[in-house]
Write a structure and sequence with these properties.
- The complex is a heterodimer of chains A (315) and B (311).
- With 315 residues, chain A is mostly helical.
- Chain A contains eleven helices and no strands.
- In chain A, helix 4 packs antiparallel against helix 5 and helix 7 packs across helix 9.
- The N and C termini of chain A lie close together (7 Å).
- Chain B is an all-alpha fold and 311 residues long.
- Helix content of chain B is 73%, strand content 0%.
- Chain B is built from 14 helices and no strands.
- In chain B, helix 5 runs parallel beside helix 8 and helix 5 packs parallel to helix 14.
- Classes of the chains: A mainly alpha (315), B mainly alpha (311).
- Chains A and B meet through helix 1, helix 5, helix 6, helix 9 and helix 10 of A and helix 6, helix 7, helix 11, helix 13 and helix 14 of B.
Chain lengths: 315, 311
């Protein structure tokens, strides 16, 4: 098992390096363009050369890459042009927890309800309940998060005269205020795509598992239906679903970008859009890289979780 | 005995008399949701095809006789007006007719959806099959690149691509959505092509001296089509959603193009309190379209993948 863990960790390294190479190659194309934009269109050639030199843009590409890679590895993220030359790591330390909280809350709500709904739908296969639950799931997948978010706000504003608070209160300062504010975007993220996809996957896996021989054996030896479902069926049906939840991370990020915009939450997604609109290319480059790294790490985490949860799977 | 044989023959005969369409209809009839999806997709295509006719009708309804296309024409009198006889779904914040714009929005959604599915689908098909067929270091390197590309959240990569290209147009949007769509499609096609490449009939083809091209096009490709069709149709819905998301963020199809996502732009919320119709209707159209493609794709998958039948 440990050999597998080590091998899996080693395998992640080329992917991580690949992520940085791809981002670097992509973003370098606009490097100079954005520089000219951010320092004003009128500047002498000498000033331009000076700034290039200062930012190390006149060095060979591979040297620039390794310099940048070193900065990433040592968590030296540089400064943002857009946010008053603020230290990027400080900026991220403020924004990442916020987005992470919304994303995790959404993930918990979505996968939790999805798993429960999927089990119920599978147990009541081809009944009205089954069709209803599946219908809700497909609807959740189809309705874009930004629209459901807008509709939620609209209903609140029109019916309850309530306006979502802008800005952000950390959870350790005002837990109730924080939750009252962030529960809505989390619900919107969770109840849409997450719940729908988890539910469908769980239903399928559950149906498959329930027709296995060991379920029959369990019934034959007189186990109660509840024990059969929770201990025998669900535990095994959760294997494919867990992969799915791991794959959700990229979608969480996507959902966050859009939902933060709707609810006016100053998280990472907001930062990304600001950076693109103001052509703050080092920030875009950093955020794209970090999102890629986060996904690779999450997949790694899910694989490790497998080992721990399912000793039967030996590699 | 004779009667039995006759009966069997009759049953077989009846079976044989059903043509492809009939057999498909039987499969589809058991999937009412799939038929709803098909209906929605057909409605969407009809909307897109008949958009100019609707434009004439809506322009006539409000007595518009300007030079600009009615879908782009701002009328101060129509600003944020609720649905009425002149403007069937009301007017947007610039005083343009919402109904006309939503009808034209179907064109953009369909164009982007099909362009992404066809474009990325074709590229992914070629890359997936060649990667599986040739194997070796081509496959290894290709798969590592797929790993890397798959690590990026789709929308983030699309946003970065738009940021690089620094232009906003329908075509840039299509490119930006297509690239992140590639890895998953390549995976599926490669997986299928890999198992086909290992079959005996491909070996037989190789033995009789078929060229690489012939083997790929006549042996491997036809047998890798079913999963390809499934992933391509599955992409349609998500491509439309991604286009809408990008346009919603102001990074996709630019104004004044009537994109559904663009109509829902974040600032639309500021006006929605006064005039809810400006976000209700475009969102409904968008959701119905994506819903239609999703359930249609699901049903198609069931029909094309015999293993899933009867589930």
């Amino acid at each position: 098992m440990w050999a597998y863990v080590v091998r899996r960790l080693l395998l992640a390294i080329p992917t991580l390096l690949g992520v940085t190479v791809v981002v670097f190659l992509i973003m370098r194309v606009i490097g100079d363009e954005s520089l000219r934009f951010n320092t004003g269109m009128t500047m002498s050639f000498e000033t331009y050369q000076m700034i290039r030199e200062e930012l190390g843009l006149n060095k060979p590409l591979y040297e620039q890459y390794f310099h940048w890679l070193f900065d990433i590895v040592t968590l030296d993220f540089g400064r943002s042009i857009l946010y008053n030359n603020a230290e990027m790591s400080a900026l991220l330390a403020r924004k990442v927890p916020l987005s992470l909280q919304v994303g995790l809350m959404g993930l918990l709500i979505g996968s939790g309800l999805g798993i429960i709904g999927g089990v119920i739908a599978a147990l009541k296969q081809d009944t009205f309940t089954d069709y209803l639950i599946r219908g809700i799931a497909i609807l959740g997948i189809s309705v874009p998060t930004f629209w459901s978010g807008m509709m939620l706000i609209l209903i609140f504003v029109r019916m309850f005269d309530w306006i979502p608070r802008q800005g952000y209160v950390p959870i350790w300062e005002d837990p109730a205020g924080n939750l009252a504010q962030l529960i809505w975007p989390a619900l919107i993220i969770g109840l849409g795509f997450f719940m729908g996809t988890t539910l469908r996957m769980m239903r399928g896996a559950m149906l498959e598992v329930m027709s296995e021989d060991y379920i029959r054996t369990a019934r034959a030896k007189g186990l109660g239906e509840r024990v059969i479902i929770t201990r025998h069926a669900m535990r095994n049906a959760l294997i494919p679903v867990l992969t799915l939840v791991g794959m959700f991370l990229p979608i969480t990020v996507t959902g966050l970008v859009v939902t933060e915009q709707v609810f006016g939450i100053p998280g990472v997604g907001h930062l990304m859009i600001d950076a693109i609109n103001f052509r703050d290319f080092p920030v875009v480059q950093l955020l794209v890289t970090l999102s890629g790294i986060a996904v690779v790490m999450a997949n790694l985490g899910v694989d490790m979780l497998y080992l721990w949860l399912y000793p039967r799977i030996r590699y | 005995m004779a009667a039995q044989t006759e009966a069997v023959a009759e049953i077989i005969g009846q079976r044989r008399r059903r043509n492809v369409l009939q057999r498909n209809w039987l499969l589809w009839r058991k999937r009412p949701l799939g038929l709803v999806g098909l209906g929605l997709v057909v409605t969407l295509i009809l909307m897109a095809a008949t958009a100019p006719l609707w434009q004439i009708a809506t322009a006539a309804a409000s007595g518009y006789d300007g030079f600009i296309d009615y879908k782009y024409a701002s009328q101060i009198s129509a600003q944020l007006v609720p649905p009425n006889a002149e403007h069937w779904l009301g007017g947007d914040r610039y005083g343009r007719d919402l109904f006309t714009r939503i009808i034209y929005g179907a064109q953009i959604s369909l164009y982007v959806g099909f362009a992404v599915a066809m474009g990325a689908g074709t590229i992914a098909g070629i890359l997936g099959i060649t990667s599986a067929y040739f194997g070796g270091w081509v496959d290894l390197l290709g798969q590592r690149l797929v790993d890397v590309l798959q690590a990026f959240p789709g929308l983030i990569l699309a946003m970065a691509i738009v940021a690089i290209l620094q232009t906003f147009s329908i075509e840039v949007t299509i490119i930006a959505i297509s690239i992140p769509a590639l890895p998953a499609m390549i995976r599926v096609v490669r997986g299928q092509a890999l198992s086909v490449t290992k079959t005996d009939y491909v070996l037989a083809g190789r033995t009789i001296g078929a060229s690489h091209l012939r083997l790929i096009f006549r042996y491997v490709m036809p047998n890798s089509m079913a999963p390809w069709i499934i992933v391509v149709t599955g992409r349609l819905g998500s491509a439309i959603t991604t286009e809408a998301s990008l346009s919603f963020l102001g990074l996709g199809v630019p104004e004044p193009h009537p994109s559904w996502g663009g109509m829902l732009n974040a600032s639309a919320l500021d006006f929605a309190e006064l005039a809810p119709h400006i976000i209700v209707f475009p969102g409904l159209a968008l959701s119905m379209a994506v819903f239609g493609f999703n359930v249609f794709g699901d049903a198609l998958r069931d029909v094309l993948d015999p293993r899933l039948r009867g589930r």
